[in-house]
Design a protein that fits this description.
Length: 442
């Protein structure tokens, strides 16, 4: 009984605090409207003065700051106050969509790389490679440095890290580099988000463009989106999308499929996901390409299960990109940064998975599978690690968090192997074991 009055008192205090917060927001909104009136009414004399007076009566500091900024006075920056200045430099980053700022913190100025410094000094790329968005994207920070120099620098970093732990018997072997470190990522993904609002001319241009693009289909204004559809990569430390139609690291076929999906969305009335409004349908697309098999898995991540015309969409996508072997819908309705959801999947075309060969063994890959994105170097890594392990045949190999089971099955080769893990990704391991004879694996 004693807890009930206390609960009522706490609830009343909570409601009082909420009411105060609402009043404060209304007061701030009135101030902003008054400041806006003052800015636009500066040439109208009495009208602007009246708006400024109304803003001042509202008692908001924001109106005074806006007024100082409009007047262009030298004290405009000071009028905003220390609190406003702090918010501008606290690392808030623009969030893609309807404006505003993301609440998550990130470094306001990312650390400069050697490639960044070279660009600032006007030094041309010494590797012969360049990308128009390399600094914004942040994925290719060493692009302008020759690959041999990159390996030398990484070797020095490795020695610096491990030398204090080594003794005279320890040998530092050279890093095994790639023959051609380009277009190797066999897993490529992109978010889809609404961009600027398209005018009538933009819509007509897009419709004409689609009519002329290989005669794929006739574009109609009703099929065109009201807003531009953005896809690409997130800028470092933000949710701002950097449009990338080409990438020196990503598989070319996978990239082409992602761009084709964007072109098909208007025709099938598919809205991109707006993470600010939590609305829209298509959140991401993930493409996996088999290293040796060439099979292609496309996963469409949707903000809801109902997908009218899904089979038609998949058939049209395969028609335009015939290398696709399967298309899967993954449902993710949560407000989360995770790409894939766990609310169900539906196969729209094909078997729902692909097969690939790694180190001479066959593996099944589904949307949730953990499978190395650089299969060429994965084979180098596995073979070198097994060679150094010096397995004799009498050991039992434990593959913890095994995913598709690549490490354990490649290492086993006749040895007993046990896989351990959980979740959808680990469901592919038994299939891989059975496909490779299953001897000694469980």
């Amino acid at each position: 009984m004693g807890e009930e009055p206390k609960a009522r008192k706490t609830s009343a205090a909570h409601e009082k605090a909420k009411a105060a917060a609402r009043a404060k927001r209304l007061e701030r909104a009135k101030g902003k409207r008054g400041a806006k009136g003052a800015a636009h009414g500066s040439s109208q004399g009495a009208k602007g003065a009246k708006s400024t007076k109304a803003a001042k009566a509202a008692g908001t500091k924001g109106s005074n700051s806006a007024k100082a900024a409009v007047q262009g006075g030298p004290h405009g920056a000071k009028a905003t106050g220390a609190k406003h200045a702090k918010s501008q430099h606290a690392g808030a980053v623009p969030k893609q969509g309807r404006g505003g700022f993301a609440k998550e913190k990130c470094p306001a100025t990312p650390a400069k790389t050697r490639s960044d410094e070279a660009v600032e000094r006007g030094v041309p790329s010494r590797s012969g490679l360049s990308c128009p968005v390399e600094r914004e994207c942040g994925a290719c920070q060493l692009l302008g440095i020759p690959y041999a120099e990159q390996l030398t620098e990484k070797q020095a970093c490795m020695r610096e890290l491990f030398e204090p732990l080594s003794d005279d018997a320890c040998a530092f072997l050279p890093i095994c580099g790639m023959d051609r470190p380009l277009y190797y990522r066999n897993k490529v993904m992109t978010p889809y988000a609404p961009g600027r609002v398209l005018g009538v001319r933009d819509v007509d241009k897009r419709a004409r463009g689609e009519r002329g693009a290989k005669g794929a289909h006739r574009g109609h204004r009703a099929d065109a989106p009201r807003r531009e559809i953005l896809c690409g990569m997130y800028a470092a430390g933000s949710h701002r999308i950097i449009p990338t139609d080409e990438c020196l690291l990503e598989n070319r076929a996978a990239k082409r499929i992602l761009l084709t999906i964007r072109r098909l969305m208007p025709k099938f009335r598919i809205e991109p996901y707006d993470e600010d409004a939590l609305s829209g349908f298509l959140r991401h697309a993930v493409v996996r390409v088999g290293h040796e098999s060439g099979e292609v898995l496309v996963t469409l991540v949707t903000n809801g299960e109902a997908f009218p015309g899904s089979k038609n969409f998949a058939r049209e996508l395969v028609k335009r990109c015939p290398e696709i072997t399967t298309v899967v819908q993954n449902v993710n309705t949560r407000n989360t940064n995770a790409v894939l959801g766990h609310e169900g999947e539906h196969v729209l075309y094909g078997p729902g998975f692909i097969l690939d060969t790694l180190c001479g063994l066959s593996f099944r890959i589904s949307s949730h599978s953990f499978y190395q994105v650089n299969a060429v170097q994965t084979e180098v890594l596995y073979r070198r690690a097994i060679e150094l392990a010096q397995l004799t045949g009498g050991e039992t190999v434990l593959d913890a968090y095994c995913g598709t089971g690549t490490i354990g099955l490649v290492a086993a080769r006749g040895l007993p192997v046990e896989g351990e893990g959980e979740g959808p990704a680990e469901g592919d391991a038994p299939h891989a074991s059975a496909a490779n004879g299953g001897s000694g694996a469980r």
